[in-house]
Design brief:
Elements (H helix, E strand, L loop, with lengths): L12 H12 L2 H13 L6 H26 L3 H8 L4 H33 L8 H9 L14 H18 L7 H24 L4 H10 L11 H17 L6 H6 L8 H34 L3 H4 L3 H15 L4 H35 L3 H16 L7 H43 L8 H27 L7 H23 L22
Helix pairs in contact: 1-8, 1-12, 1-15, 2-10, 2-12, 2-14, 3-10, 3-12, 3-17, 3-18, 4-5, 5-7, 5-15, 5-16, 5-17, 5-19, 6-14, 7-15, 7-16, 8-12, 8-15, 9-12, 12-14, 14-15, 15-16, 17-18, 17-19
Bound molecules: phenylalanine (PHE).
Length: 515
């Protein structure tokens, strides 16, 4: 039996779909989307957001699905088959996903687990901000001042890694698929309860109307610098929220059976993910609106971005609820945990699948070693400098690694392999027909927009140090992460493939289009 014929496949179409949606729906859908919408013109933000979804999100999702499905391989193997010189990029994507995101993603899930327990007795007290930064994280004054390990955080992180290991070490159809078949319906039900509850709170509807739905079209004008920034932000959000550029969707699609509706499934994944964000936004705006009214502060002062939203503003709102405070807290943090775990397993899967492909080790062995390394690597984020290092790493990964990965992926697949080859493969696999407009998107529109985004990020970083950190800290943690992951990818790509691995599985008649 060849290695590829041993490859597991998803047990059902819905299993694959829920796993892909599980990867896409994560912490970002809840705390990143709402804040972005608020900051960038409320309802008007939906216009660039939807344009980004259709011009870059869906085309790239189809590209990643098509590549994984055609090659039935992890990103490094798929890229190496197209062109051996591109294998390092194929490694970089899952390596960045693992070391650049997964290590701290696990720690954030660890925070959520702690807050889940704290909800039971509202253990964060009256001053939720002081509790989060001073008592819980004990944040130090510099990223170099690691201080001690925060043991409750390490405990939560270890539990997150254990759950991830227990799910990933089984074959995809018995591990990830089963877990997502359970997690995703649970997530939808819990989220709907939370939304239904939040919009009924006193002051919720006014906040939703005035800050979420109110459309300020002047904020998205392409004629102003501010407006252009909103467009860049929308494209960035689409990329992050759909988990594109990390090789995750390539990996997941490599387990698909031969006859698959690639276009239809990619569109469904994207639409469900974005609909989830928009619906969850009602809960976030409603809850903050309620809190602002209860405390008599303006909405603008109450809202916060990132961790501040979930761990400072939400606990504060929970404190203010007239009844069932604990239940609301448990519900909210459970939503975050479930959304987080289903993304964490996809980040782990992308790396372990690549390791299995190259080193021909058993899945169990690869996943066990990788989760062990993951837990050890996460420790740095559980120290008192954890939040600061996380912030720097996150900035560099989102602004550079992810987007550069996306640009290179477009060049490789749409130009070197040729988008027509991919489109033909997609259309021969059945389902919704992919029009030739897709070629224009992945050859021109998507890479050009992504290039503009990297340019914008570079300009921003050269005009002032990000977040007020020292240049030394940015270079060490941000630059170091980019350089370290590149180096590791380079080393891994120099390990030779086992005989037979490089032989393509797809129909060689595709190749005539290459000439
Ligand atoms: N899409 C996830 C979210 O919105 C984050 C994520 C990014 C997960 C990349 C996996 C890979 O939170």
């Amino acid at each position: 039996m060849t290695a590829s014929s041993q490859r597991a496949i998803w047990g059902s179409k819905i299993g694959f779909l829920l796993a892909a949606i599980g990867s896409a729906i994560g912490l970002g859908n809840i705390w990143r989307f709402s804040y972005m919408a608020y900051e960038n013109g409320g309802g008007a933000f939906l216009i660039p957001y939807l344009v980004a979804l259709f011009c870059a999100g869906i085309p790239l999702m189809i590209l990643e699905y098509a590549l994984g499905h055609r090659e039935k391989a992890s990103p490094p193997l798929a890229f190496a088959r197209i062109n051996r010189l591109w294998e390092p990029l194929g490694w970089w994507m899952p390596v960045v996903a693992f070391f650049g995101i997964n290590l701290f993603y696990a720690v954030v899930i660890g925070w959520c687990m702690n807050y889940f327990c704290l909800s039971l007795n509202l253990g964060w007290g009256a001053d939720t901000e002081a509790f989060f930064f001073k008592t819980f994280l004990q944040t130090s004054n510099s990223p170099f001042n690691l201080g001690g390990i925060r043991w409750p955080i390490l405990g939560g992180t270890a539990l997150a890694w254990f759950i991830c290991w227990a799910i990933c070490y089984r074959e995809v159809n018995r591990g990830i698929e089963k877990a997502c078949l359970f997690f995703m319906p649970l997530l939808v039900v819990l989220t709907l309860i939370l939304v239904g509850w939040s919009v009924r709170l006193d002051g919720a509807m006014e906040a939703i109307r005035d800050f979420y739905l109110k459309t300020d079209l002047s904020r998205i004008s392409l004629l102003t610098a501010g407006g252009r920034k909103v467009w860049v932000a929308a494209f960035g959000q689409i990329f992050f929220t759909l988990s594109l550029g990390f090789g995750i969707m390539i990996t997941y699609a490599s387990y698909l059976p031969k006859k698959t509706d690639i276009t239809g499934t990619a569109i469904t994944t994207c639409l469900v993910n974005c609909a989830y964000s928009i619906v969850a936004g009602f809960a976030v705006f409603g809850t903050i609106g309620f809190m602002a009214k209860a405390k008599g502060v303006p909405f603008e002062e109450a809202i916060a971005s990132g961790p501040g939203l979930a761990f400072v503003v939400y606990p504060e709102a929970i404190n203010q609820l007239p009844m069932f405070n604990q239940l609301f807290g448990v519900l909210f943090f459970l939503v975050l945990i479930v959304a987080g775990i289903s993304s964490m397993i996809s980040l782990t899967e992308a790396f372990s699948c690549a390791i299995c492909d190259k080193f021909m080790v058993s899945r169990r062995k690869a996943v066990s070693i990788i989760c062990g390394i993951g837990l050890i690597g996460s420790i740095v984020f559980t120290t008192q400098a954890g939040l600061l290092i996380l912030d720097i790493v996150d900035h560099f990964i989102n602004n550079y690694a992810l987007i550069i990965g996306g640009i290179l992926e477009c060049i490789l697949v749409a130009w070197l392999l040729k988008s027509q080859v991919m489109r033909r493969h997609v259309n021969e696999s059945g389902g919704v027909r992919l029009p030739s407009l897709w070629d224009i998107c992945v050859r021109f529109i998507t890479p050009v927009i992504l290039l503009i985004m990297v340019g914008g990020a570079l300009l921003g970083d050269f005009s002032g140090a990000y977040g007020g950190y020292s240049v030394k800290a940015l270079l060490l943690f941000g630059g170091g992460m980019l350089f370290g992951t590149r180096l590791l990818s380079f080393i891994l790509s120099h390990v030779p493939w086992r005989p037979g691995k490089m032989e393509a599985e797809h129909d060689p008649s595709d190749e005539h289009l290459l000439t």
